[in-house]
Amino acid sequence: MTTTPTRGLTPVLDTGRTMLGPALRDAVNSHLGPEMSRIAHYHFGWADAEGRPTGTWGGKMLRPTLALLSARAAGATDAEGLPAALAVELVHNFSLLHDDIMDADETRRGRATAWTVFGVPSAILAGDAMVTAATSVLLAAPAAGATSATVSLMTATQRMIDGQTSDVEFERRDDVTLGECLRMAGDKTGALLGCACALGAELVGAERSLIEGLDAFGAHIGLAFQLADDLLGIWGDPDRSGKQVGADLRVRKKSLPVVAALNSPGADELRALYLGPEPMTERTVQRVTELVERAGGRDWAQDEAARQIAAAEQRITATGTPDDVLGELLEVAGFIVGRQL
Amino acid sequence: MTTTPTRGLTPVLDTGRTMLGPALRDAVNSHLGPEMSRIAHYHFGWADAEGRPTGTWGGKMLRPTLALLSARAAGATDAEGLPAALAVELVHNFSLLHDDIMDADETRRGRATAWTVFGVPSAILAGDAMVTAATSVLLAAPAAGATSATVSLMTATQRMIDGQTSDVEFERRDDVTLGECLRMAGDKTGALLGCACALGAELVGAERSLIEGLDAFGAHIGLAFQLADDLLGIWGDPDRSGKQVGADLRVRKKSLPVVAALNSPGADELRALYLGPEPMTERTVQRVTELVERAGGRDWAQDEAARQIAAAEQRITATGTPDDVLGELLEVAGFIVGRQL
């Protein structure tokens, strides 16, 4: 997961964040040592680099809100689903801390990344502390499905790591297929989002069919998000303050629309420009943008996002989730993919 | 954990390694993706950088052998204790992969470290994949104590991370007390070794008193090991191929004998040389070595190691562990601390 469109939160996200922020802080304080807590408080946006409170709850809490809704889809309370919500947010932020180091990203959410403030060793350790705490929080839950939920969370985490690995590996390869690229996005983005949508239900001991339906819903939403994010990384969006036009092309990223175009018939000029050794000038970025569009990369990505959203809706509807919870799940999913569902 | 004295393995370690090597490889292959597996095979010493088998089983498998013995101390078989053994070795190697990056160490066990071969991003991810797999392996065990053992392993992992954090933090501080330094060593080295000595027993559902006795035994052995390792880092040992004389002093490491000496009365010259801004010449290293010894740092560390070993023996004897298993636990512990127990 990289950027998410920044704009006003929806009602359910607003409520979720208010409830989840303090609970997450309590979990961090009780599971991490003082030094690791300090880095976590900074990373989550609760404190500045000197440890002074910022007075805000930081991130949008998309995944933990989905985890709470999945517990409600299984007829449980938010309190019962809470450990799942906290665990999934800890795993997500473990990945952000390590991703920022791997990508040498210096800013996140408009603030200096943790490794630039505290150094690489401390930021590696803070990520390690978070993934360790995620397991502890989940296993401490007095719930029927604590062990089973932890197994699922670790499976999703392992897939997320595999996806990140493939992403790193693809940078060095010129023959990445669209199938490989979709699998990578499913691992890197879809697995944890699917897990977030199912983990609360699994924790409270829901039936396997509901857990699977919720997981599939989230996985499709994750892929739709990745496609939308990749489109923004090329064409941008004036309504959003996220990615700049051409950002992904400048670094020759093998994003989904680009890989779709590279594998189309007649992509010789695109392949030469994008995979060749010449510097990526602004003029080349413009030409590549045109060529990706002409080769059908943009249309394919938009259509594929629509297909993923349709599949998500079909899977969630089939679960028989009560209308009020269904509406809230669709509200959050719509926020993630940047359109109303 | 840094270096361990290299010399011939004891009989129980030799047997342990032959059994554990293939089982660990199977766990790696089934829980890690192909790319992460490749790095793990290299890191464990099973393959070279191109993936060609080396024909050896790599490390000494100290911790997993202890975990198997702890299952036997609880009356269970090696097969029943195996998931605990694999999980603890995965956590240990997760920490090695990340430590080598943090310390910028270029060699381990006489080979290039993983990050120098595969790059920092891949080595971070490989560590992440191992700690995630550790939880999965343990929770998949068909055993009464799988959940409880996983909670204990995560608690020990969190303490190991805290210890590592303190170690990094101490480098920047001139006022580290001996108490802080002992606590750091207990977290960094003692926690996981204590866990290794108890995890097999916990996994098979042993009584709490046995688990606690085994854990305390391992924690004391861990501290004795750290003290022995710190002594080697200053005075070396011609019989061992591990650390070089003065290695820790050259990098101004706040090891236990040094901190003991720094906090002794009349350590003004030592403090000025060790905490001051002047370059650490070979002549200064020699003078610091003398001053640490004169201030009682060497004697204190030797006495403290003996006290920790005595405490370990007292705790393990009190558990009522059968003589044959007791003998093997003491054999491995003796190997770790570099003397016969």
Describe this structure in words.
Two copies of one chain form a homodimer. By secondary structure, chain A is an all-alpha fold. The first copy, chain A, has a single domain, classed as Farnesyl Diphosphate Synthase (Orthogonal Bundle), CATH 1.10.600.10. Chain A contains 15 helices and two strands. A two-stranded antiparallel ribbon of chain A has the order 1-2. In chain A, β1 and β2 form a beta hairpin. The first copy, chain A, is globular, with a radius of gyration of 20 Å. At the A-B interface, α4, α6 and α7 of A face α4, α6 and α7 of B.
Tally of individual domains of chain A: 1
Count of extended strands of chain A:
2
- In the CATH hierarchy, what is the class of chain A? Mainly Alpha
Spatial shape of chain A: globular
Oligomer: homodimer
Look at the structure and give the mean pLDDT of chain A: 93
Computed structural class of chain A: mainly alpha
Strand order of the largest sheet of chain A: 1-2
Distance between the termini of chain A: 20 Å
Strand proportion of chain A, as a percent range, falls in under 5%
Biggest interface, chains and residue tallies: A-B, 40 and 40 residues
Given the structure, what is the number of helices of chain A?
A: 15
**How big is the Rg of chain A?**
20 Å
Would you identify the regions of chain A where 5 or more consecutive residues have pLDDT less than 50? 1-6
Order of helices and strands of chain A: HHHHEEHHHHHHHHHHH
Second rung of CATH, namely the architecture of chain A:
Orthogonal Bundle
Briefly note the CATH topology name of chain A: Farnesyl Diphosphate Synthase
**CATH homology superfamily name of chain A:** Farnesyl Diphosphate Synthase
